[in-house]
């Protein structure tokens, strides 16, 4: 069951995602929270900001990704944020619950990897000296 599938300009609420997948039948919940960090191996300086932008079809694509992983055995909640995110801000939340931990782990990992590879959301990485670079261009193949 898909409980949340959203691309949003608003801050993401981790607790909301956990509540959305909670169920009396769920014995396991796997959670991934991606946050903006102050470093990147390819950056010359300290990262201070990520500017996320999305294709107008991004939310539809996220829904398709989530639907492809939806089974009777899991509950899914996923959101990706767009806009300007400072170091420490939450960029993505994926929560998956299941009767057993194996399915929760596997589906959560697959969901995160597919969002990273397929979602048409791009980020511009800004460093402390003002230098910037586009990172992770992809999606809508």
UniProtKB/TrEMBL annotation:
Its EC number is 2.8.1.12. Gene3D superfamilies: Molybdopterin biosynthesis MoaE subunit (3.90.1170.40). It is an enzyme of class 2 (transferase). Keywords: Transferase. One of its GO terms (molecular function) is molybdopterin synthase activity. It comes from the Bacteria. One of its GO terms (biological process) is Mo-molybdopterin cofactor biosynthetic process. CDD domains: MoaE. The keyword Transferase applies. The keyword Transferase applies. Pfam families: MoaE (PF02391). This is Molybdopterin synthase catalytic subunit. It comes from Gordonia humi.
């Amino acid at each position: 069951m898909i409980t949340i599938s959203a691309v949003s300009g608003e801050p993401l609420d981790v607790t909301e995602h956990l509540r959305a997948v909670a169920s009396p039948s769920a014995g396991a919940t796997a959670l991934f929270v991606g946050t903006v960090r102050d470093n990147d191996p390819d950056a010359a300086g300290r990262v201070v900001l990520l500017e996320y932008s999305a294709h107008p079809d991004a939310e539809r694509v996220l829904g398709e990704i989530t639907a492809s992983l939806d089974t009777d055995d899991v509950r899914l909640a996923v959101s990706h944020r767009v806009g300007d995110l400072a170091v420490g801000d939450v960029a993505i939340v994926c929560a998956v619950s299941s009767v057993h931990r194996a399915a929760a782990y596997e589906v959560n990992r697959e969901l995160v990897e597919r969002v990273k590879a397929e979602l048409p959301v791009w980020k511009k990485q800004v460093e402390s000296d003002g230098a910037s670079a586009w990172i992770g261009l992809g999606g809508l193949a």
